[in-house]
Design brief:
By secondary structure, this protein is mainly beta. 9% of the residues lie in helices and 34% in strands.
Length: 507
């Protein structure tokens, strides 16, 4: 008698059927397997039994007014210290930054990060400094912020640096994976700009490569190449330093809806898009042979764009659609059919956005291989992905060395043509976040680059004797005063916290 079942873990949705007695969402059942194939029914993988589970109610972040801006951004960014969420804000754009441990109901007067004059569209934590975050906005600017380890008393309104170069709204930002202080931004002006945040300067501008709206931009593992998707239906692989398109593919998915693309660890490109019949579809491509896909699978019929989150250590890609209530996950291998369906995490509430924790922020003692931060209308719900294991020992096969917080290159080294793989760290003893490191911005010749002043009509004659050394002395005094104010603000905050503890203890 032919055996039934099991092979669905590898084959995906095509040619499968679900028996009436099956109540689990996302399990695909195949047609009967010939006896000759019965020995290879189940594909061996240590990730076959990965399951997702939401945290308890008291570990969620409640009463957050998540942004309602129409944008395919994830609206959430996470690192081992903080979770940042784009929120509704009157009179400009804002996002809220919460320490990971500060769960429960968020005070309605909790300080925000404000400074943009229009809605914030994207945020991204620096991979080399857990206290630095960048934000992109409809006001055409990109701002970089230093977040203190303590909770500030007032809104953070002064960015460390403001990057101005786009003429229309900026909807995408992404830090370089290995070079210090290199930030990418892409706007609705079809322009991709690379910045040196440490000097506030524009390094490169890729202005003649995209003929229409850019949907997404992603780095490869060492940051030597970019992959972009565009409204003109082309996927492009770009060498940013040579400012050359080294490979491109027209319409990897035949539908008109937006396409997303990311690099895999092996240098392949994983895409999500739509068929001509508006079915969602995923694909795997070799940029050296873009004509034929390595794998192409249809999924379901839905309007939501699938956002891919990729874990290079396990080679698992998680697909989260805006408006969906599920997370599908697949393992990418070098064995046919190359993209293997694993399982689906399902819930009742649709997601408005999603944050993805870097590997160094996970709890290795619980065999946690991924953690998502699902945005609802008024809350943020962490979802933990776990591989069940009986042993309490460190699982080497689940946690290979992973990229750490130290950059492998300086910005000037990368710009000159040097490449380097990420500096890896072991998670055997867990990861302890580094204390606050200040981002210092040194603007080169900022005074010399200003145009000379015009004729002065109403100024006194003594103004002409106001020398540059004197001006620099005044600026130095202003900087010293700012540092004093910040130190006093921290001291006031500490005293307020002690006073609160004293008051709580006496009640």
């Amino acid at each position: 008698m032919p055996r039934v079942g099991g092979v669905s873990q590898s084959t995906g949705p095509e040619g499968t059927k679900t028996p009436p007695s099956c109540g689990r969402v996302g399990m695909w059942w195949p047609d009967p397997v010939p006896p000759a194939m019965s020995r290879r029914v189940v594909r061996q993988s240590k990730f076959r039994h990965v399951f997702g589970q939401p945290v308890k109610a008291d570990q969620m972040y409640e009463d957050i007014r998540v942004s309602k801006v129409t944008c395919d951004s994830s609206f959430c960014a996470v690192n081992p210290k903080f979770v940042a969420i784009i929120v509704e804000s009157g009179g400009g754009g804002a996002f809220i930054v919460l320490p990971l441990a500060k769960t429960g109901r968020v005070d309605k007067n909790h300080p925000l990060v404000t400074g943009h004059t229009a809605p914030v569209l994207d945020i991204d934590w620096c991979p080399h400094n857990d206290n630095v975050i960048a934000s992109a906005s409809e006001d055409t600017t990109v701002m970089v912020w230093q977040i203190p380890d303590y909770v500030p008393v007032r809104n953070i309104t002064e960015p460390v640096v403001t990057l101005e170069g786009h003429s229309k709204r900026v909807s995408i930002i992404s830090w370089h994976p290995t070079a210090r202080n290199v930030l990418l931004s892409a706007g609705c002006d079809n322009l991709v700009i690379l910045w040196n945040v440490g000097t506030g300067e524009m390094l490169l501008a890729l202005d003649d490569m995209h003929t229409d709206l850019i949907y997404n931009v992603g780095w490869n593992r060492n940051g030597s190449l970019l992959v972009t998707t565009c409204k003109d239906k082309k996927v492009r692989v770009i060498d940013p330093r040579k400012q050359q398109i080294i490979a491109e593919r027209f319409a990897p998915h035949e539908g008109l809806r937006p396409v997303r693309a990311i690099f895999t660890r092996e240098g392949h490109i994983f895409t999500t898009g739509f068929t001509r019949m508006s079915q969602r579809e995923l694909g795997l491509w070799d940029p050296n042979n873009f004509e034929e896909p390595i794998a192409l699978q249809e999924m379901d019929t839905s309007n939501g764009v699938l956002l891919p989150f990729y874990d290079a250590d396990s080679s698992i890609v998680y697909l989260c659609g805006k408006g969906d209530s599920s997370i599908r996950y697949f393992e990418i291998t070098d064995e046919a059919p190359y993209v293997h369906y694993l399982n689906t995490y399902s819930s009742k509430e649709p997601q408005r956005g999603m944050g993805f924790m870097p590997k160094r922020g996970l709890d290795v003692s619980k065999c946690e291989i991924a953690r998502f931060f699902k945005l609802h209308e008024r809350k943020c719900e962490p979802i933990v992905m776990t591989v069940p294991r009986k042993s309490d020992l460190f699982q080497d096969d689940l946690y290979p060395d992973t990229p750490g917080p130290e950059p492998a290159l300086e910005a000037d080294e990368w710009l000159s043509g040097k490449d380097a793989e990420p500096i890896l760290i072991s998670l055997r003893d867990g990861y302890v976040p580094i204390k606050n490191r200040e981002l210092k911005v040194v603007k080169k010749n900022i005074l010399d680059s200003k145009p000379p002043p015009g004729p002065r009509r109403s100024h006194s004659t003594c103004d002409s004797d106001f020398s540059q050394p004197a001006l620099e002395e005044v600026l130095e005094e202003i900087r010293a005063l700012k540092e004093t104010v910040q130190a006093q603000e921290k001291r006031i905050c500490d005293l307020e916290n002690k006073l609160c503890q004293f008051t709580n203890g006496t009640d």
